[in-house]
Design a protein that fits this description.
Elements lengths: L1 E4 L20 E3 L6 E3 L8 E4 L5 E4 L6 H19 L1 E7 L2 E6 L2 H8 L3 H28 L7 H11 L5 H15 L4 E4 L1 H18 L3 H8 L20 E3 L6 E3 L19 H21 L3 E5 L2 E5 L1 H10 L3 H29 L7 H14 L5 H12 L6 E5 L1 H19 L27
Parallel strand pairs: 1-4
Antiparallel strand pairs: 2-3, 4-5, 6-7, 6-8, 9-10, 11-12, 11-13
Helix pairs in contact: 1-3, 1-6, 2-3, 2-12, 3-4, 5-12, 8-10, 8-13, 9-10, 10-11, 10-13
Length: about 450
C-alpha cells in the first residue's frame, strides 16, 4: 500500500509518531525540495512526494532481523564463491579453470593493474563492505556500537558502486559468446555467486534507511511548525542528503551525521558539465582503440566495441549483440546528451516540466551503471580464455578508457542537483518567484 504524503491530506498526529513529540516529521523532498509532513506509516507502507512522486519513506515489517540475515547469508555465499572453482572451459582437449578471485587477479598479473583493481572493487570489495556494514548497523540498532555514523555514511555512498548484478549479466553474455566454440562447465562457486547477487539485492530492498538513522539519533526538527507546499529554501531550511535531516540554512553541518550540508550542491552545473565534457573526450578513443585482443590458432585480432557488435550480429548472436550495443553505445551517448539537456534546463530561468525532467534524471542515473557490462565481459573472458596461441583473450587500452567513461558519467549524475530543475517552478509563497542556479531567490 502506498500513501502520498503532503498536500492531499492532513498528516496523522499521534503520540507515537516518528519524532516522538506528538507531531509528524517534517521532510524535504531530495528531488524537488518541497516541505511535507510525513504521516505515521504502518509496516509495508510507503510515502511519496506530492509534487514529484519521489519516495520519501518506506516502513519495513522488521527493520533489524531480515536485513541482517540477508546480509549474513550474502557474505556466506560470497565466501563460497571464492573457495571453489568458478567456471571451467575446454577447447580441443585443453582445459582452463578459474576461481572467482581470478577475474581480477589474472588482469593484475597481465599488467592491467588499474582495470584489475577496478574490477575487484566493484564485484568483491564494495559488495562485501556493504553487507558487513548492514550487519554492523543492524547490530548497532540493538547495541550502541562505535562509528555507526561513519559506517552508515560510507554505506549509502558506496551502494551505487556495487555492481555484482552487472557482473552476472556480463557472465551470461560471455557464456553465449563462448559456448559455440568451447565446452563451458559451471562450478559450485558460480551458483553461490548467483545466490549472493540475489541476497545482496534483497538486503537493500528490506533496508529501512529511516529506521536506521532514527536509531542513531532522532531527526532534527525546526522549532516552529512550517507550512506544507513551500520549498525548503524559501523557508530558510535545507536537507541533509546523507541522513535526510532538516536544518536551518545557516547551519553548516548536520547535527546528526556531521555531514557538510548545502542548500544546493555547490557549483553543481559546472562540475556536471566538466565531467560530461571529460566523458565526451574519453568516449572517442574508447570506441576507436581496441577493447580486446583475441588470439585464435595463432591469428591475432583486435576488436573495438563496434567491431565486436558487428561480429556478434553477423554470427547470429542477435540478443547478445543488441545488449552490448545498447549498454556500450546507446546508453552512454543518450546519458551524456540527456545530462547536457538537463543542465541547460536547470540554467534556464523559465518554467520547465520539473516532474517529467526529474523522472528522466532518475532513469539515466539508474541505467548509466549498466554500461560497465562490456568492461566486465572483457575482464572475465581474459581470466578464463588462456590457451596460448590456441585461444586467448587479452584486454586492451579501450577497456580502461571505456571504464573511465562510465565512471565519469556516473560522477556527473551524482554532481547534478535535481532540485535545480524545480527551482524555476513558482513556489507556493510567491507564484512569480524563481531561483537561480545558486539557490538565491530572485
Amino acid at each position: 500500500m502506498k500513501i502520498t504524503a503532503g498536500l492531499t491530506a492532513q498528516p496523522t498526529i499521534s503520540p507515537n509518531s516518528v519524532d516522538g513529540t506528538g507531531n509528524s516529521e517534517l521532510v524535504l523532498c531530495p528531488h524537488c525540495d518541497l516541505a511535507q509532513y510525513l504521516p505515521v506509516l504502518a509496516a509495508g507502507e510507503e510515502a511519496h512526494c506530492d509534487r514529484c512522486q519521489q519516495q520519501l519513506d518506506a516502513r519495513q515489517y522488521d527493520p533489524i532481523l531480515p536485513p541482517a540475515l540477508y546480509a549474513a547469508s550474502a557474505l556466506l555465499m560470497l565466501l563460497l564463491a571464492n573457495l571453489f572453482p568458478f567456471v571451467s572451459m575446454a577447447i580441443a582437449g585443453n582445459r582452463s579453470e578459474i576461481h572467482f578471485f581470478d577475474t581480477s587477479a589474472v588482469l593484475f598479473n597481465q599488467f592491467h593493474q588499474s582495470l584489475a583493481i577496478l574490477v575487484w572493487l566493484i564485484i568483491q570489495a564494495v559488495p562485501a563492505f556493504c553487507m558487513l556494514a548492514v550487519i554492523y548497523l543492524k547490530i548497532g540498532m540493538l547495541y550502541r556500537l562505535p562509528a555507526r555514523i561513519w559506517v552508515a555514511r560510507v554505506l549509502f555512498m558506496l551502494k551505487p558502486w556495487s555492481m555484482v548484478d552487472i557482473f552476472l549479466m556480463g557472465l551470461l553474455i560471455s557464456f553465449v559468446k563462448l559456448v559455440a566454440t568451447a565446452e563451458i562447465s559451471l562450478g559450485m562457486s558460480f551458483w553461490a555467486f548467483c545466490l549472493f547477487c540475489l541476497l545482496h539485492l534483497r538486503t537493500f530492498q528490506v533496508l529501512d534507511r529511516h529506521a536506521l538513522w532514527a536509531s542513531i539519533a532522532p531527526s532534527p526538527q525546526p522549532v516552529l511548525r512550517v507550512k506544507e507546499g513551500h520549498t525548503g529554501l524559501s523557508m530558510q531550511l535545507k536537507l541533509c542528503h546523507c541522513c535526510t535531516a532538516v536544518m536551518p540554512i545557516q547551519q553548516k553541518r548536520c547535527s546528526r551525521c556531521y555531514t557538510r550540508v548545502y542548500a544546493r550542491l555547490p557549483a553543481s552545473l559546472q562540475k556536471t558539465l566538466a565531467l560530461l565534457l571529460t566523458a565526451c573526450v574519453l568516449y572517442i578513443p574508447a570506441n576507436v582503440l581496441p577493447i580486446m585482443r583475441t588470439v585464435s590458432l595463432g591469428e591475432i585480432t583486435d576488436s573495438t566495441i563496434i567491431s565486436g557488435f558487428i561480429l556478434m550480429w553477423q554470427n547470429g548472436e542477435y540478443p547478445v549483440a543488441i545488449i552490448i550495443f545498447l549498454a556500450s553505445v546507446v546508453i552512454p551517448i543518450i546519458k551524456i546528451a540527456v545530462m547536457f539537456w538537463l543542465c541547460f534546463l536547470a540554467s534556464t530561468p523559465t518554467l520547465s516540466k520539473g516532474k517529467r525532467n526529474g523522472i528522466i534524471y532518475q532513469l539515466v542515473d539508474w541505467v548509466g551503471r549498466w554500461s560497465m557490462v562490456d568492461v566486465l565481459v572483457v575482464a572475465f573472458m581474459a581470466a578464463l580464455v588462456r590457451f596460448g596461441l590456441l585461444a586467448s583473450v587479452y584486454p586492451k587500452i579501450g577497456a580502461v578508457l571505456f571504464a573511465a567513461v562510465v565512471i565519469t558519467t556516473m560522477l556527473a549524475a551524482v554532481s547534478f542537483d535535481p532540485r535545480l530543475l524545480w527551482d524555476h517552478q513558482p513556489s507556493a509563497d510567491n507564484p512569480q518567484a524563481y531561483l537561480n542556479t545558486e539557490g538565491v531567490i530572485k
